[in-house]
Amino acid sequence: MDCIRCHKKAVVSIKGNPAFCEKCFCDAIEKRIRKHVRMNKLFSKNDKIYTEGELCKYLVRDIIKDLPVKYTSKKQANKIVLAYTANDLCIDFLKYLTENKSLISKTKEVKLLATITNEEAKLFAKFKKLEFKPLKKEPNLNKFLSNLSEKNPEIINSLGKSAKEIIDL
Known about the structure:
The protein is about 50% helix and about 10% strand. It has helices spanning about 20-40, 55-65, 85-100, 120-125, 140-150, 155-169, and strands at about 50, 70, 80, 110. It has a four-stranded parallel β-sheet with strand order 2-1-3-4.
Protein backbone atom coordinates (compact mmCIF):
# COMPACT_ATOMS: atom_id res chain seq x y z
CA MET A 1 0.00 0.00 0.00
CA ASP A 2 1.27 3.49 -0.85
CA CYS A 3 1.21 6.67 1.22
CA ILE A 4 -1.75 8.86 0.28
CA ARG A 5 0.43 11.98 0.18
CA CYS A 6 3.82 11.13 -1.32
CA HIS A 7 3.14 7.66 -2.80
CA LYS A 8 6.11 6.07 -1.01
CA LYS A 9 5.59 2.74 0.69
CA ALA A 10 3.19 3.25 3.60
CA VAL A 11 4.24 2.08 7.06
CA VAL A 12 1.29 3.37 9.09
CA SER A 13 -2.41 2.72 8.82
CA ILE A 14 -4.26 3.37 12.05
CA LYS A 15 -7.77 2.02 12.37
CA GLY A 16 -9.96 3.95 9.97
CA ASN A 17 -7.20 6.36 8.91
CA PRO A 18 -5.52 6.37 5.52
CA ALA A 19 -2.09 4.85 4.98
CA PHE A 20 0.94 7.10 5.50
CA CYS A 21 4.68 6.82 5.23
CA GLU A 22 6.57 7.69 8.41
CA LYS A 23 7.32 11.30 7.40
CA CYS A 24 3.81 12.09 6.18
CA PHE A 25 2.27 10.56 9.31
CA CYS A 26 4.46 12.73 11.56
CA ASP A 27 3.69 15.81 9.44
CA ALA A 28 -0.07 15.14 9.68
CA ILE A 29 0.07 14.72 13.48
CA GLU A 30 2.14 17.89 13.92
CA LYS A 31 -0.24 19.81 11.65
CA ARG A 32 -3.23 18.69 13.72
CA ILE A 33 -1.53 19.70 16.99
CA ARG A 34 -0.40 23.06 15.54
CA LYS A 35 -3.98 23.82 14.50
CA HIS A 36 -5.22 22.90 18.00
CA VAL A 37 -2.61 25.23 19.56
CA ARG A 38 -3.43 28.07 17.17
CA MET A 39 -7.23 27.77 17.38
CA ASN A 40 -7.26 27.58 21.17
CA LYS A 41 -4.46 30.14 21.70
CA LEU A 42 -2.69 27.79 24.11
CA PHE A 43 0.57 29.73 24.28
CA SER A 44 1.41 33.39 24.35
CA LYS A 45 4.42 35.65 24.66
CA ASN A 46 6.33 35.42 27.98
CA ASP A 47 4.59 32.24 29.18
CA LYS A 48 6.43 30.19 31.79
CA ILE A 49 6.04 26.63 30.59
CA TYR A 50 6.53 23.26 32.27
CA THR A 51 6.17 20.16 30.08
CA GLU A 52 5.46 16.64 31.28
CA GLY A 53 7.17 14.01 29.16
CA GLU A 54 9.57 13.94 26.24
CA LEU A 55 6.87 13.99 23.58
CA CYS A 56 5.21 17.14 24.93
CA LYS A 57 8.57 18.87 25.33
CA TYR A 58 9.52 18.05 21.73
CA LEU A 59 6.17 19.26 20.35
CA VAL A 60 6.10 22.49 22.36
CA ARG A 61 9.61 23.43 21.28
CA ASP A 62 8.85 22.52 17.67
CA ILE A 63 5.53 24.34 17.53
CA ILE A 64 6.26 27.61 19.31
CA LYS A 65 9.85 27.94 18.01
CA ASP A 66 10.53 31.71 18.12
CA LEU A 67 7.84 32.72 20.61
CA PRO A 68 9.64 34.18 23.65
CA VAL A 69 8.78 31.77 26.47
CA LYS A 70 10.65 30.42 29.45
CA TYR A 71 10.84 26.74 30.37
CA THR A 72 10.69 26.41 34.12
CA SER A 73 9.76 24.18 37.07
CA LYS A 74 6.23 23.06 37.76
CA LYS A 75 5.83 25.45 40.70
CA GLN A 76 6.89 28.54 38.75
CA ALA A 77 4.99 27.73 35.55
CA ASN A 78 1.86 29.51 34.43
CA LYS A 79 1.25 26.75 31.81
CA ILE A 80 1.66 23.04 32.55
CA VAL A 81 1.66 20.96 29.37
CA LEU A 82 0.13 17.51 29.91
CA ALA A 83 0.23 14.39 27.75
CA TYR A 84 -3.58 14.45 27.69
CA THR A 85 -4.88 12.72 24.55
CA ALA A 86 -8.28 12.32 22.89
CA ASN A 87 -8.63 9.03 24.80
CA ASP A 88 -8.32 10.92 28.09
CA LEU A 89 -10.85 13.50 26.93
CA CYS A 90 -13.33 10.72 26.06
CA ILE A 91 -12.82 9.02 29.42
CA ASP A 92 -13.35 12.30 31.27
CA PHE A 93 -16.46 12.96 29.19
CA LEU A 94 -17.89 9.50 29.91
CA LYS A 95 -17.21 10.04 33.62
CA TYR A 96 -18.98 13.38 33.35
CA LEU A 97 -22.02 11.70 31.78
CA THR A 98 -22.16 8.76 34.19
CA GLU A 99 -20.86 10.24 37.45
CA ASN A 100 -21.50 13.96 36.93
CA LYS A 101 -17.79 14.72 37.47
CA SER A 102 -16.65 18.19 36.48
CA LEU A 103 -15.05 18.70 33.07
CA ILE A 104 -13.63 22.12 33.85
CA SER A 105 -9.85 21.92 34.09
CA LYS A 106 -7.40 24.13 35.87
CA THR A 107 -6.44 27.14 33.79
CA LYS A 108 -2.75 26.29 34.09
CA GLU A 109 -3.18 22.96 32.30
CA VAL A 110 -2.52 22.74 28.56
CA LYS A 111 -3.86 19.60 26.93
CA LEU A 112 -1.53 19.60 23.96
CA LEU A 113 -2.35 16.14 22.57
CA ALA A 114 -6.15 16.41 22.89
CA THR A 115 -6.62 16.03 19.13
CA ILE A 116 -4.72 12.74 18.76
CA THR A 117 -5.34 9.29 20.20
CA ASN A 118 -3.00 7.32 22.47
CA GLU A 119 -2.22 5.05 19.53
CA GLU A 120 -1.24 7.98 17.29
CA ALA A 121 0.86 9.53 20.07
CA LYS A 122 2.70 6.22 20.62
CA LEU A 123 3.46 5.88 16.91
CA PHE A 124 4.59 9.49 16.59
CA ALA A 125 6.87 9.10 19.62
CA LYS A 126 8.26 5.85 18.20
CA PHE A 127 9.06 7.47 14.85
CA LYS A 128 10.69 10.47 16.53
CA LYS A 129 12.54 8.20 19.00
CA LEU A 130 10.86 9.82 21.99
CA GLU A 131 9.23 8.41 25.08
CA PHE A 132 5.46 8.57 25.55
CA LYS A 133 3.49 7.17 28.44
CA PRO A 134 -0.28 7.58 28.25
CA LEU A 135 -2.03 8.81 31.38
CA LYS A 136 -3.37 5.98 33.52
CA LYS A 137 -7.11 6.51 33.61
CA GLU A 138 -10.07 4.30 34.43
CA PRO A 139 -9.11 0.84 33.07
CA ASN A 140 -12.78 -0.16 32.61
CA LEU A 141 -13.63 2.93 30.57
CA ASN A 142 -10.39 2.56 28.62
CA LYS A 143 -11.31 -1.02 27.72
CA PHE A 144 -14.84 0.12 26.80
CA LEU A 145 -13.37 2.76 24.44
CA SER A 146 -11.00 0.21 22.91
CA ASN A 147 -13.88 -2.15 22.21
CA LEU A 148 -15.92 0.65 20.66
CA SER A 149 -13.02 1.80 18.49
CA GLU A 150 -12.56 -1.73 17.10
CA LYS A 151 -16.09 -1.59 15.73
CA ASN A 152 -15.97 2.11 14.76
CA PRO A 153 -12.38 3.39 14.34
CA GLU A 154 -13.34 7.09 14.40
CA ILE A 155 -15.33 6.89 17.65
CA ILE A 156 -12.59 8.41 19.85
CA ASN A 157 -12.13 11.47 17.62
CA SER A 158 -15.90 11.90 17.16
CA LEU A 159 -16.63 11.58 20.87
CA GLY A 160 -13.78 13.98 21.64
CA LYS A 161 -15.19 16.62 19.27
CA SER A 162 -18.68 16.20 20.73
CA ALA A 163 -17.31 16.50 24.25
CA LYS A 164 -15.54 19.76 23.37
CA GLU A 165 -18.74 21.19 21.88
CA ILE A 166 -20.76 20.26 24.97
CA ILE A 167 -18.11 21.65 27.32
CA ASP A 168 -18.13 24.96 25.40
CA LEU A 169 -21.93 25.38 25.76
